[in-house]
Amino acid sequence: MLKLLHLEDSTVDQELIRRQLKREDLELDCTYANDRKSFRKCLDELEPDVILSDFSLPSFNGLEALKMAKEKYPDTPVIFVTGALGEEKAVEFLKEGAADYVLKDRLQRLGSAIVRAREEADARIENRKAEEALRHRQRLEHVINRFSVSFDKGEIDSLEPAVQEALDDLGRFIGAERICIYTKDPSRKYLTNTFEWARPGLERRGECRVPLHRFESLFHESGLSKPLRVNSIKDLPPEAEPKTWLFSDPRIESLLLVPISPLGENLGLLVCEGLADADWSDETVGLINIAGEVLGNAIRRVDTERELREERQFLEKVLDFSEMLVIVIDDEGRFVRINQGFAEVTGYSPEECIGRSMFDLFVTDDTRETAADDLKRVLEEGSIEYYEKPIRTRDGDRRIVRWKADTFTHNGERQILACGIDLTNLRDAENRRIQMELKLAQAERIDSLGRVAANVAHEFNNVLMGIQPFAEVVARVAGEDERLQMCARQISRSIKTGTRITGEVLRFARPAVPTRQVVSAGDWLRELVAASRMALGDQMEVVLSVEHDSEISIDGSQMEQVIMNLLLNARDAMDGKGRIEIVVASPAWDGGGRFGVLANPHSHAHVMVRDQGPGIARDVRERLFEPFFTTKPKGTGLGLAVSHQIVRAHGGHLFVESEENRGSTFHLFLPKADQPESEQ
Question: What is the value of pTM for the model shown?
Fold first, then answer.
C-alpha cells in the first residue's frame, strides 16, 4: 500500500480525486493537507511514497510545496493536479523536479501517472544505490591500492607517510577509531606496533611490544586464516592478556583482528578498534582481510629483500676479508667486480677496474695469447681447475697466481667467477726457507769441519814445532856451506807458512769473542782507508763516501781484518790497478728482496765495498763464504769465511752482489750502538 500525501484546499476536489483513484483499484493510504502549516506537519510525521499537490493555494503555491517536499524527501515523486496550467508553467515545474502534472478535467490519467512516477522513483533509487555501490567498490580498491603502492616503495621503516595516508583512508572508510599494524621485531619473539592511525582527539597508543605467545593465543582455535570480530574483552582468551594492549583504552569496546599471515606464516596483526556500535559488516571484514593480505605479501617481500640484501652484504664481507683474489668478468674479459684482496695485491681500486678489460690492466705481455686462450676455454668448457698465470700490478711488478675459474649466468648474461691464490710470497718464503736450510746445513758442515780442522791444525802445529829446532841445528852445522844454509832457511819459511795457516784455521775454528767499543763508522773507516794505502799499492785508489754516519759497537781489530780482507780481494780481482769505493749509508727496506732476512734494516749501519773487477760467477757466489773454498792459486780459502764469521759474531750480516763483467759489491750490515741486543 502506497502512502499518499494530498495537498488540496478544496474538499470537493479532494473527494473527486479520491473516487477516481478508488475506481482504478489503487491501494493507497491517503493523508490530506490544505495549507503550508499542515503540509509541513505531514512531511515531518510521515514519509510519503507519492505527493499530489494543487498549484494555487491561499498564501501558498505548488512551487513552494515542491521545494519543501524535495528538501525533505528528494526521492519522493510530486505530481501536480491543477485546473489549468500553461505549457511554460508545466515545463518550469518539471525542471524544478516535479514528476508529472494532471489536469483536473482529465483525472483518468492520474492513476497511471502515480504508478509511473513511483516506478521511476524506485528505479532512480536503485540506480543511485548501484552507483553508490560502484563508488564504494572504487574507494575500496583505492584503499587497497594505497597499501600496495605504499609497501612497493621499499623498507617498512621508510613507508611511514605513505602507510599513514593509506591507514587514514581505511580508517575513515570503515568507521574505525584506531588502526594499528603489529609486525615482528628482529628477534622474532615480539610484535611491535610498526604503524598506528587514530582519529583526531584520540590519544595515540605509542610504542607497544607484545610477546608473540599472546598473539598466537588469539587464534588458537580459528587458526591464522580468518579475522576475529570481538565485541567484549570476555570474548578473548585470558592468556592473551588483552587488557594490556587490545582494550587498554576504555572508549574502545569492539575490535576487528586480522592476522597478517601469507601462506600461513605468522608475520603480524592488523587491529581495527571501534566504539560499541561499530559495524564490522561482512563487507568491512572482507575489505580489512584484503588489506591484511596486501600487508602480508608486502611484509614478506620486504623481509625477503632485506634477507637477500643482508646475505649479499655478508658474502661481500666474506669476499673482502678473504686473502684470496676474487674477480668476476664478462665473456669479453671486462671486469664486473673485484674483491679487496685483488685490489690490495694489484694496487687498483674497484672503481678503476670495473668495465675495463683485464688484457689492458693485468695481463703480462708474454702471456697475452695464452690468457685469451684461457678465456675461450673456460667459456667453452664451463670451468678450469687450478692453473698458474702471472698478473701485472699497478707498479709493474709480476705476481704469480694460481687460478680456478667457473662460469655462471647473472641477469641473463654469462659471466666468469675466478678465484686465485697469490703464490709469489709463498714461493719467496719457500726460497728463503730453502736458503736458510742450506745455510744451516752449511753452518753445521763448517762447524764439523772446524772441529776437525782445529784438531788437525793443533797436531800439525806440534809437528812444525818439532821440526823447527832441527832447522836451527842444520843452520848452525852448515857453517859456510851455502847450499845447506839455503835449505835451512827454506825449512824455516815453510814452518812459518804452516804456522800462519794453522793459526788461521784455529782462529776460524775457535773464534775470539769480540771486545767491543763504540766508534763512529765514518771516522773509523777514514783511519782504516788511510792505513790501507801502503798495503794496497800505489795503483789502487780507495774512495770513501759517508752518506749517513752512525755509531757502531765493534771490535776494531777484528773488523779491521774484515775490511782489509775485502779490500785485498778487490785489489786482486782488478790485478792491482783500479778504483775501490766504500760507502756508508742507511739501509732502505726493500720488501724482502735482496736483504729480506734483516728483521729491522734501520737498526743497522750499511757499509758497501764496491770494485770494478770482472765480477763473480753465480756458482762461485754460492760458495764464496765456505771455508777452504778459493779461486786463487795460492789462497787458503779462509779469508772470507773468517770475515763472515767475525761479522756474524758482531750481530751483523755480510752479503755479496755481483754480475760478471760488472764488478762486485759487498754489503756489510753492522748493528748501531744504540740498539738493544734483541734487535741486533
Answer: 0.41
